[in-house]
Amino acid sequence: MALSFVGPSMFPRIFLFLCKVWVVVALGALVMPLAVWIMIFIQNTQTFADTMGHYMGNDQRVYDQVDNSPGSGYVSDTNIPKHLAGVIFAAAFDVGMWVLILISIAADLFWKFDLLKRFLEAFWAAGLYDERKFVEIEFFFVIANAFLKLFIVAATGAQTYTGLVPDLNDSPPVDTPLFCLYAVMILLCSIPLTVIALMFILHGKKMREYKDELAAAEGKA
Fold this sequence. Notes:
By secondary structure, this protein is mostly helical. It has one domain (27-211). Helices cover 69% and strands 0% of the residues. It is built from seven helices and no strands. The model has no long low-confidence stretch (mean pLDDT 81). The chain crosses the membrane at residues 21-42, 84-111, 139-161, 181-202.
């Protein structure tokens, strides 16, 4: 068994294995922003409820009087804007980011799990592969997911500069903006390596399917 592994294909197999390992490890770079947006959602809604109660009006003077931060565009210690139903829009955006990150995770691993293919199809995000074989997959799908990750980087990184502050009641306090910064930097650095790894993985899948189809055609002949 070990001897059969040695040969011209040994190093390509090792490299392909490392690519697959990297893609799995790089999922952590997407899990971190997902955790960030869950933290933001919880911190936003709890702090807003503690500060403003059930008020969701459009009068900034009311916000300024209650949260003692006149002139600020955000409710104190949150990234919720001071306008009509701002907390609802902020919460909807948070949930939307959860979905986009899960789509990106599925797009990184669709080649391995059929469940993730169906997940992408549920959101009409199947890309160019659709129901076709790996032989027909275009690498544009990988690049499109890379741009989705760049949007996640931009959206998550923006939270570093909004009104979020550590909750001093926590022990130790969680510095959400700093965690945002770490998350986006790690994700940003992982994007080019993941694109390269996925291209090699898909190329390997293409070659295997092509050889199988060629062998089947020769068998019929």
